[in-house]
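Subject: Interface between my chains keeps coming out wrong

I've been trying for a while to get a sensible model of this assembly. When I model each chain on its own everything looks fine, but I need the whole thing in one frame so I can look at the contacts. Pasting all components below, labels as-is. Any help appreciated, I'm running out of ideas.
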Amino acid sequence: MTVKLDDSDRKEVLRYLGYRGSEITDVVEEKLEAAFNICNKIINVRQVWKLYSIRESKEGITLEEADCVLYGESLKKLLKGLNEAILFCVTIGIDFDREVEKQMIKDPTLGVCLNACGIAAIEKACDNLQLEVEKELGKKTTTRFSPGYGDLPLESQRDFIRLLNTEKIAGVRLNENNLMNPLKSVTAIAGLMEE
Amino acid sequence: MDFFDKILILDGAMGTELVKRKAPMGHIPEELNITHPDLIKEIHESYLKVGSNIIYSNTFSANAYKCKTSKYSVEEIVTAGVKNAKEVASKYGALVALDMGTIGDILEPFGNLKFDSAYDMYKEMIIAGKNAGADLLVFETQTDLLEVKAGVLAAKENSDLPILVTMTFEPNGRTFNGTLVEAMAITLSALKVDAIGVNCSLGPKELLPFVKRMREVSDLPLIVKPNAGLPDPKTGGYDMTADEFAKEMVPFMEMGVSMVGGCCGTDPEFIKALAKEAKDYKPSRPEKNNKSYLSSGRAFVDVTRVHVVGERINPTGKKVFKEALLNHDIDYVKNQAMEQAEANAEILDVNVGLPKIDEQSLMVEVVKELQTVVDLPLQIDSSDANVIEKALRIYNGKALVNSVNGEPEVLDKILPIAAKYGAAVIGLTMDKDGIPSEAKKRVEIAGRIVDRCHYYGIETKDIYIDCLTLTASVQQKEVKETLDAIREVKARYGVHTVLGVSNISFGLPRREFINTTFLTLAMQAGLDLPIINPNNAAMMGAVNAYHVLANIDKSATIYVERYADTVAVKEETKSSEASIKDLIKKGLGDLTARKVKELLETKDALDVVNEDLIPALDEVGALFEKGTIFLPQLLSSAQAAESGFAVIKEHMAKNNKETISKGKIVLATVKGDVHDIGKNIVKTILENYGFTVIDLGKDVPIERVVEAAREHKVKLVGLSALMTTTVSSMEQTIKALRDAGLDCKVMVGGAVLTEEFAMQIGADFYSKDAKQSADIAKMVLGD
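Reply #2:
Try treating it as a single job with all components included. I did that and got this:
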């Protein structure tokens, strides 16, 4: 599966750049266009997802098949009354990180535009994955929720990475501070709702 | 062990078999070595029964990083794993390979894992495995060639066991991390491992082209351990049958690979079918490959025509470059590298030697950092053996060492290092008596170098002789000697040649005429690697033209691609009527630069800065603050101003004036944090306000910040952190600066910080964006 940014994503990209409606100079227009093109050329989307039965417990949400608890009240609230959820991981790949690194030195304007495109792309890829899952399972998904959101501890990132075997399937690894590499990667849980 | 003797059958999947047996999965499946040894032995035996000659111990994840939460130590898990395997393997006369997967953490500079830590973690496994009786070492499912290199060095320096390496490639012929098939094969051949190959990710059919590409560039025995086809995206299962798998493995055996087995989704049935097919085949020993290869982790050069070595990363005679090194401006060096890569250099010379500088640590840092922005192989240029060794150790690829000469002491010091790390070597045809004027003497020295290289195991193809350029204005009749020597060393020794070209024209006007002509003569004489400035269009033109005229660039394809639609001289476009302020607001860098040039004809440089450039930046900053313009506009204006400042700097350097700096600021993204985009934005803005930024990069150890603040006597330190988790290391860094008694202010910024939070952790200033950081700098350091 691949993701392409198009005109419909422009608004989102501008939002990440803090745009508040002023006139955009020709130079910045050019950079934005270049950033879209580079982004579409170099992203390499990899993804993995798994379905789990879930149960609310005192400390949080238990993933039955994995015998693993994701802690916190916020996740309980999101998944209230649901019996199933998917865990997933999506990345747009390491080449994107390299390109941002390069551009931040060569042309920081292009660099920040590209970085914003990367955020839009990874979000779009997550949306697509959820749509795919919905189609396949015939159920709607809730909003996605990631480690570090609300009171779901960032440490739970370790569980996501391990359970989804992301290193092997998507090339996503964690550093000792639970930050992902490639940088533009998302792990999340989303509940499944009966239609 | 001769891996060309007969095809050795490896085993199939371990994980798949554990799942089949519903084995309890704790933190890591390797704990089963201790808790359920019989289960593990049963799986090993199921492969031995069907003909595996080598089985892999159940130790894939048994490294310190992945075992962190286990109640067993690495040594316990590895020892148990190898012993289980040995116990059953010995009954079948089979061998046991200590299996090592990836560490799981990310190596610098993209991650925080130090090369030496990766080395130590593999070392721990290797020593335990060796002591438990492992017969071989295997690194598998690897994705980062540099991590593999750490492992291979750990293996070589701590055992004598044969080393096998297989990496995991995506359909595009790269690993997730970007390692290219050929780069892996070239680098590991240079490191003299015992066999290389592929495992996991894809089925046999998909992996075949990659293994063929490995054979193209490497003489090593090959290993193939594919998955049972491609996984079903829905179930994650594999649907290939054992017989189908074995049939698809036949092309590998026909091409002569040495070891075959299976990865995910393969079971004893697969191995049984495979062993049956393998009976009819034998590995083939490839013919000696006489090409010299140089590689990074992502690209390679096979030296078959003229390849340009970019000479720009070298402080000699370059004021700005020297200053950049002294200020630790690694981005400047990276920019030089990117520019040369864009100008079609194919190899980059890297020299960072300067008096009063720690060449060793700087070289290591530059080599590491350059590899994040360019794919080109590097040429490590230093006269210090320790610098060379440190750089070669952490270099991801097969490098070229610049250089040795005919002096025995130099040869005996540097050649063993080059040989150990599998680097190619440049040999200068000179000795303690200097450069001989006659070609004959230079050829003799080359002969001594070649002999010594052979003695240390460096092959002829990896020797690059530099016959040395003399200056035509001083030693005109010796120009011919250099050219004769090139011809002769190639004919006599079969080596490659390299030559720094531009020295030829010192002291003469219009040096380009002399340089291009000499370069052309040298190429005709057999020069392989000219060391030149690739940004010089005439020199690059000579190389490209030579390739056409020597019938190397067939149908002039590359020449036409590069030069069709280009014009010889760019016409100066007319200068704009707009003011500097407008030009900067619009982000028009070229026009700003031209305008500044015009102004300098009538105005003092400092006045241009204070009356034109800075007020323009101030205005843009104010607009940004009000929200009238957004970040890309602020940055494009800063970049436009930067073009203006560059003209000023050049002008002042020409007139021998000190460059203007409003003071130095240390910037760092704190320890543990790898998100540095915000810090980089701040850097761009600060520099354009005339401050000198000492950029320490990301994930910066606390001591490093303190050291830099002390060394550069800065009055202001800027720290950034993106994550809540790393704000604590920000706090510790501030505390360390205070404890060191340094008289400097600290400003902090980052997504999770607030004014209140910033004060709480002891900062002097909270900077909400790049503009504000410039305001703070002005306040602390003065306008």
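Reply #3:
Confirming on my end. Chain B has a mean pLDDT of 93.
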